[in-house]
What does this fold into?
Amino acid sequence: MKKTAIALAAVTLGLTAQAVSVSEDMPEIVWETLGNVQAHDGAPKYVQRFTVKAPGGFEKIGFCTFKHPMVAVNPLDTLEEVLPGYYAVRSGRFADAAPGDVLTVDILSDGALTHQSFIPDGMHLVVDGKPVRARTERKSIMSHPWQWRTQCRDGMIYGDEAWRINDSLLSMTERDLKPYMQIPSPKSVRTTGRYIKRPKLKAAHIEDPRHDYYSVELRDGTATVYTNSRYPEQVLRNLERRLDMNSDSRGRVPAATIRDWADYGYRGYMIDVARNFQSKEDVMKMIDVMARYDLNMLHFHLGDDEGWRLEIPAVPELTQVGGHRGYAMSDDVPWLKGIYSGDGSPEAKDTPANGFYTVDDYIEILRYAADRGIEVLPEFDSPGHSRAAIRATEWRYRHNGDASLRLIEDGDTSRYETPQNFTDDLMNPALPGPYKLWGIVFDTLKDIYARAGVPLPGVHIGGDEVPAGAWSGSRAVRKLMHEQGMTEQREVHAWFVDKVCRLAAERGLKVSGWQEVAMRHSPEYDAAVRPVMLSVNSWTNAGNQGYEIASKGYPLVLTNVDYLYFDQTPNSHPEEPGLVWGGGKVDEFKPLHATLDSLCPGDTAVQNHAVGISGTNFAETVRSRQMLERYMLPRVLGLAERAHNANATISDGEYFGHINREMDFWVRDGRDFYLRQPGIRVNDGRIEMNKAYAGHGEIRYTLDGTDPTLDSPLYTGSVSLGESGSVRQIRARLFSGPRARSVVSILYL
It folds into this structure.
């Protein structure tokens, strides 16, 4: 109790404005945490501080952060929730600020701040009702390391623990990998023991019922690759990669016969650009990664609460409003309220809050993907997760008078809250607007894909996370339920999905959805909807949802959060980005262990309905392509292996050896990727460090409590504590190439 009182007392020291002379006019905002504490009732709390260098008087400080209980410490300050995830602080003392004044705002928050991803983003000021961009600095939550030795000891991997982990990984890693066994590993490789001049490859068609089957005898001269793939050029490119990685110093390769096929026809990866946008060029860079590892379905999450990212010419408001986020106290603006990221400006070009693909942009992406053997499955989530579409069509109604596309009902008193804390993001299934909109979207997609000259595999309609209380206050829904003899909310949800599926079927289209579209519905519903379904993604941890979906005959795609959500943090280090709601850490081994037997245990007849597997990367915490790469690499290797081989094939040691080899390519290609932190220990008076990767990366360290940079001393061998003077803590970081670096590893002495 005494320590808590002292910590909270210290917080109050920064509540007054300080007159500081500055010469620059642009405002600056610095965020930092003052540490995790315990309240008098024993509940964990933390204090975050915003330090503002004012340009003069202003009205508010705006910022984005995940929704949780917060209160301003200073009684003169008021914290407002503009939207779940978007907050503003207002205070009478802001208006009186002179140019150059420095003001501090302290906010007491429930819980412990244990993860970098929960640091606020999108900080800006509001002056005369308009957002003003500020230079911002977000200090690391490791700036106050004492807390990780006390209240949050269990929330961090320390240097000595990292040493033990790394030592274990090094001991199991197989460095002498078998010829041509690059991930995804082929079903059969027979080598002769001799090396040959690298053959020229050509493709020839062969009939075979297996997915993307090919066989080749690598011998002198020309080797014919017999394949049934719709994309033989990509089969040749991936085989050329195997030849590249198995060539000796003279350019020779092992003579061999290879036979291979994929267990899954759907080998997917989902990129979410609705929550935070990725440019056309950056999406293409991710497509290159998919192609390298033989993934063939880009699940493209284009519409959600936080954004609509594809131009629909017949409804320009979808991107005019839904393609931008910015400061707003009401919805009567031609953009969405800010959330997750951005600087408060809907016009800013360099923020992931803003952006969309024109029809021409999207056609370019489609053709780029098709050239690499990848199809693109577009998703616009509905009837939940639809706030962007709702706000866009409401703007159209209010300013153009077109009520035909309205997705919500006047006077609806429904009370609900989604898992993302929204209370206004549900389309109303009893209105004609949702179905008219879906008809326009289906027709537009058909036209775009036809113009691109590539197949439209289907359209993902979402269908997930309709919360309790949905439509409970809707007169139109009550009327619909009475007319149709419905008694439960889930029946209204089923009604919506069925109608959208019928619209798709009328146009010759297939539909995909999340698991909710295939669970706990009537046999009549299943019989109507199942023939239209391209795929159903199972995503939750509890129960055997995959088996339930497959046993009803739906085409199952395994997408389980605790194995395959790449936006989950890989470990418990506080600096690692990612979310933690999925029930466990998704490290590089988890996707490899996502076998069919573990995710859909049951009889073979049911398992045969599993048509695919997909990695998933929702973008709440993604701010750049580099962050997306860090989430994707190296975990995509485990996904690729499992997509190709549904159950166990290579060992963990072989797998980690492949990661070591692929890292060299990622460095040459200028990629960011996840690196395990270095280990640190003191042995017989000397500091020793290790890394998980054999011969890869370099360790930089400090002994003065600062974070290592590329300019810090290079670890080349043990360091004497006696030579270093009084050392209280050792910090180390692993670097690889110009981009990739690990989190900071700490050992306290």
Remarks:
- Residues 1-23, 149-153 have pLDDT under 50 and may be disordered.
- The CA atoms of residues 551 and 605 lie 8 Å apart.
- The longest helix spans residues 433-452.
